[in-house]
Amino acid sequence: MRCPECGQGKLYRAYLKVDPVCGVCGHDNGQYRADDGPAYFTMLIIGHLVIAPLLIFEFVWKANPLLVLAMILPLLAVITLGALPVVKGGVVGVLWGLNLKGDHR
């Protein structure tokens, strides 16, 4: 979640809004367009690391479905919202590393 060029400046100016210019080195971080990639990868990661292992537990299958949803959905929301900025930072870092720049809109 730092500038991919210098590793010092903050990548975000808000929750998921990439700061267009690094405050430390002046690198143009706005040129890396992550678009839907971070959301897709976050769902993929959470699905494999959280949801799939939950299916092993017997209470998921035997308890009242509304009770299971009431317990699991808030947990999934917190985990997903916490992982999304990290994954987006990783996607921006990969775009930087591969020198894939998008258009400025």
Give structural notes.
The structure is a single chain. Helices cover 53% and strands 0% of the residues. It contains three helices and no strands. Helix 1 (37-54) crosses helix 3. The protein starts with 36 loop residues before the first helix and ends in an 8-residue tail after the last helix.
Beta content? under 5%
Structural class by sheet pairing and helices: mainly alpha
Q: What is the approximate shape?
A: elongated
Mean pLDDT, as a whole number? Answer: 92
Number of helices: 3
N- and C-termini, Cα separation: 23 Å
Short description:
The protein is mostly helical and 105 residues long. It is 53% helix and 0% strand.
Structure keywords:
105 residues; 53% helix; mainly alpha; single chain; 3 helices; 0% strand
